[in-house]
Design a protein that fits this description.
It is built from eleven helices and no strands. The chain is an all-alpha fold.
């Protein structure tokens, strides 16, 4: 039993060394993480702060954060399925991700700079936001395909968690900016900055669609 535990610990150490001890692998891994930067930040900022944004838009009706999150996630899920079909149709990973990045720019402009007049119109904007980041399946698949079989599982589990972790510095930065620039401008700074980072990272990654994935990282 102790021998099995020792072997498992050795395997984990070797995986960590291969992924994080190699500058090339580490930089590629971080590109995969930041390629998904807007995904959870949109919900943690724009949707979670629905009462604050509705007040800034001049909406006097009471908004339900729960309903805003619900319509966002439903749209996200539908878009995720469609994104997978689009990737299959185009026979590419990067092109659909870049198309979604364009959707994110449009959705952010629509959300922040075309103010809704009613709560229903606000929910519609949440639907657009959710749809724009529904490239989750393509994003994680593309990340996994960048690496060899020996560290692929580690990348598949750690990439989503680190993408979620981006919300922490993003929300902290937002809380500082909002005191100086206000809610809308601060939301725009965070949103467009993350989209720009995401696009750059996507462009720097290779498209591995239907490439030979039977390789081993040394």
């Amino acid at each position: 039993m102790n021998e099995e535990a020792s072997v498992e610990q050795l395997d984990l150490f070797q995986i960590a060394k291969t992924l994080f001890g190699n500058k090339k692998q580490l930089s590629k891994f971080m590109l995969c993480v930041f390629a998904g930067a807007p995904a959870f930040v949109f919900m943690s900022l724009y949707v979670t702060l629905s009462p604050e944004f509705c007040a800034a838009f001049g909406i006097t009706e009471k908004v339900s954060v729960g309903k805003a999150i619900m319509v966002y996630l439903i749209s996200f899920a539908i878009s995720d399925v469609l994104g997978g079909l689009l990737s299959k149709l185009m026979q590419k990973r990067k092109a659909p991700l870049l198309i979604y990045a364009i959707f994110q720019i449009i959705a952010t402009i629509y959300f922040l700079y075309i103010p809704p007049n009613t709560v229903e119109q606000y929910y519609l904007r949440c639907i657009f936001l959710g749809f724009s980041v529904g490239c989750w399946g393509i994003l994680i698949t593309n990340s996994v395909e960048q690496f060899g079989t020996n560290i692929r599982a580690t990348v598949a589990t750690s990439t989503p968690n680190l993408i979620r972790g981006i919300t922490i510095p993003a929300t902290l930065t937002f809380s500082v900016l909002v005191k100086e620039f206000g809610l809308i401008t601060s939301g725009a700074i965070i949103g467009f900055s993350l989209i720009a980072i995401s696009i750059l990272c996507i462009l720097l990654l290779k498209d591995k669609f239907e490439n030979d994935l039977n390789f081993y990282e040394k």
